[in-house]
Fold this sequence. Notes:
It is an enzyme of class 6 (ligase). The protein is α/β, with parallel strands linked by helices. About 25% of the residues lie in helices and about 25% in strands. It is built from 13 helices and 27 strands.
Amino acid sequence: MDNSKEHLAEHHMFRLISEELERKPFSREMCTRFPPEPNGYLHIGSAYAILTNAMIAQHFGGTFHLRFDDTNPLKEDIEYVNAIIEDIKWLGVDPKEHIYYGSDYAEQIYNAAITLIKKGKAFVCDLTPDELTEYRGTLTEPGRNSPYRERSAEENLELFAKMKQGAFPAGTKVLRAKIDMASPNINMRDPVLYRILYAEHYRTKRDWCIYPMYDFAHPLQDAIEGITYSLCSIEFKDHRPLYEWVLNELEMAEPPRQREFGRLSLTGVVTSKRFLKQLVEGGFVDGWDDPRLPTLRGLRRRGYTPESIHDFIKEIGSIRNQSIVDISLLDHFVRQDLKEKTASVMAVMEPLKVIITNYPEESEERLLIENNGENEALGKREVPFSGTIYIEREDFMEEPPKGYHRLRPGGEVRLKGAYFIRCDEVVKDPVSGEIMELRCSYDPLTKSGSGFTGRKVKGTIHWVSAAYCIRADVNLYDRLLLDEELPKEGEDWTSKINPESLVRKQVLIEAHVKHAEPEQKFQFLRHGYFSVDTKLRTDDHLVFNRVVPLKDSWKKPN
Length: 558
């Protein structure tokens, strides 16, 4: 994981923490955490939070924790836990032994609630959910005290114990903090600390039927683990007073500090768990790892690399509030990462047959072609050449426009790594008039690498040998959504999905790639960067996902 001082020095969170640490508020080492709920999959926005926490911990010589906020048994599943661990490690952030579960602190959090009740700072409330909303007030009007607010500590302790024992139906009682119903911050208007839920938890099973709310569990989990900085996205800024209230009332020594950074959004990308779930369950995409989704699983399957995501987040730098970034910037860094590390290969998507009439019949030869023109370390490969090849249909035109430098009747081009060829005859279907094949001649003196310095041609095109190519499928991706506006509640996604977001084609490709492994990446000359699909590839058939095209639409500002 890159943790350059130059990058962090520009990060407002780094500067803030540096200034605070000068006052030596902690006697323990730096410790940060990422606390995902195990009710969905991580996405590109999660990556920003993960890397921010991990880089700051590393820079200050501390540790990074992965802690699951698993206090809602209705939505959580071990499937998500395993996926989150795998995705974080793929991203290049390995918490090693520092993987924790909020549910493991259930007894300590319960005892903290008991302490607040004894101090007169928490009470059991019988208001219904609708009444709680009504009593809470609005942004312009203060709330009203619950009629149960003045219960004695003894009564509250008895009721809370019965809640734990399962004596009351779900929704009939909650434990609330006793703070200030007139507070301008609605989060401080006697917030709910515990609720009753009868559901099996994926770790604790049926041991508990009361569960703490995140705003109560969050500061306590941080304090238990010795977290120094709880780095949260900006929407938690209004929750910070409650975070601090809990720790102060429980008299935590050297309490952790909550600090906020901006939330990352990308143009044309859905990161809402609710909307992503609708896309998956509605069958609009091929599961949570669909390469069109911004989940880390989807990005990985498409072929994005951890290094490119790191570089992308470094370029974004410090986000103070909500920030919308053009998705083409992420594609730019994928392209930059793959440019020098990826071997090139020739693949033809719209094949046009070419017969080289003067090439010795039944002859063939092996040509040496570089694997990457920008990285000699990737070496060269042998490419079979014979008298029948395929080129791209768009690389030939009977009546080309001015400036066209590919093949035309009577014109010459160089075949990549091979010879000059000249088009002598165009063979068409007698009925449709469609071009069926070209008959060309080659100049044996123009072999690449032969030192030939005679005639020159302006165009070079790629090709594959008809005898030594294989068929493969490719998935070409575009934006999933037609516009930025998400469906309203109850509205169908059908009208929002781009029908061209996935186009499947068959290509002819050099045969040496037939043993390519899942996630192995190649540059298809002129077509972009491609990665072997992990889900659809079989031992007998290759499927490639286009990661990004070669053209870069993002330009760095001056």
